[in-house]
Amino acid sequence: MASAAQVRSGTPVDRDTSPYVELDRSAWSALGAATQQPLSAAEIDRVRGLGDELDLDEVEQVYLPVSRLLSLYVEASGALHRAQETFLDQPQPPRTPFVIGVAGSVAVGKSTTARVLQQMLAHWPAHPSVALVTTDGFLYPNDELRRRGLLDRKGFPESYDRKALLRFVIDIKSGKDTVLAPTYSHLTYDVTPDQPVVVNSPDIVVIEGLNVLQPARMREDGTAGLAVSDFFDFSVYVDASRTDIRRWYTERFLRLRETAFRDPTSYFTKYADLSEDQAVEEAGRIWDTINGPNLARNIAPTRSRATLVLRKAGDHSVSWVRLRKL
Predict the structure, then answer these.
(1) Does residue 2 lie within any of the structural domains?
(2) Nearest-CA neighbor of 68 among 126, 21, 19, 13?
(3) How far lies 302's CA from each of 44, 102, 190, 216, 238, in Å?
(4) How many CB atoms lie within 10 A of CB 198?
(5) 162: Cα separation from own chain's centroid
(6) CATH number at residue 37
(7) 6 within some domain
(8) pLDDT value at position 16?
């Protein structure tokens, strides 16, 4: 078996004695060779995140096999539903949506991964309706974070309304026809509860967020509650070295300083007039006091709970893939 240290480190492990199947990029890409790439260059442009080096090659070589694997999982879930119906010897409600969790650090590219998967999965005829929900909408409003003294810990597990997020996922997996999810504005740096996402009986729901793979918290009586990840049918962790992620965060901060931060309605207008050196220093301070500690303490430890790990190289391209064995 792979040691705990090997799993935590993000380095490849022995394929024969590991609970994972691990493939380098060339071996993984070969799995999608017989599958037609459904996204156009224009569609890829629309889903690409700020700073992500996503192109047709990356989509074909990495995400096409991922989407095919996920499609097989969805089909198998349908077969299992029918088998359970036969076992119970009575008609059952329609199968609930297949739920996929996508986790990873700030600036690692998990939002782009989630958007690409949403678009690609919707091209498979067996499940054309694919909803995407980000957990940012379940953050407490800024006023509440200030009241709790958590505004500087936004993104940490305690900054989310975890009960509301759990209720949302339970409603999805209970087969509720229509479920609403709050949204979040990165411009105003706050939730926008009056603009909810309407999730209406989709085939698949992709739930993306920093902490979606967090285990259940222990109650005061020593028992464990439920976790959002308990209701996932599949999960993806987007991984990279912490040095690379910190650099990507700084590069994104510099680009935002020239774009979104200059919008007068932006929460971050105070950064627009920083010199480049000042911006680099401020980005480093934010990373070292907020995003870096959150990654180390809360996000990275959940990597081993994922069904699939996508490990990125320094240029944002996926270099190897680790899939949990069945």
Answers:
(1) no
(2) 126
(3) 28, 11, 26, 12, 11
(4) 9
(5) 16
(6) 3.40.50.300
(7) no
(8) 64
Distance CA 54, CA 57 (A): 8
Instruction: Please count the CA atoms within 13 angstroms of the CA of 221 that sit on its side-chain side.
Output: 3
Query: At a CB cut-off of 8 Å and minimum separation 6, what does 192 contact?
Result: 137, 182, 183, 184, 185
Number of domains in the chain: 1
Residues in the chain with pLDDT values less than 70: 1-16, 34, 40-41, 45, 48-53
Kindly report the number of other CB atoms within 10 A of residue 59's CB atom: 23
Q: Is residue 8 part of a domain?
A: no
3-class secondary-structure state, position 159:
helix
For residue 301, what pLDDT is reported? 97
In this predicted model, what pLDDT tens digit does every residue of 154-193 receive, in sequence order? 999 999 999 999 999 999 999 999 999 999 999 999 999 8
Q: What is the dihedral of CA 107, 111, 116, 119, to 10 degrees?
A: -160
The whole-angstrom separation of Cα 64 and Cα 38 is 8
Residue 50 domain flag? yes
pLDDT at 5: 47
* pLDDT on residue 302: 97
Q: Each residue of 39-56: pLDDT tens digit? A: 766 777 677 665 566 778
What is the chain's percent helix, strand, coil content, to nearest 5? 45, 20, 35
Provide the token pair at 156.
């940490």
Residue whose pair of structure tokens reads 């986790």 in the numeric block = 103
* pTM of the entire predicted model: 0.90
Place of tokens 């995003």: 291
Contact between 218 and 297 (Cβ < 8 Å) = no
- Determine the structural domain holding residue 46 and report its residue range: 18-324
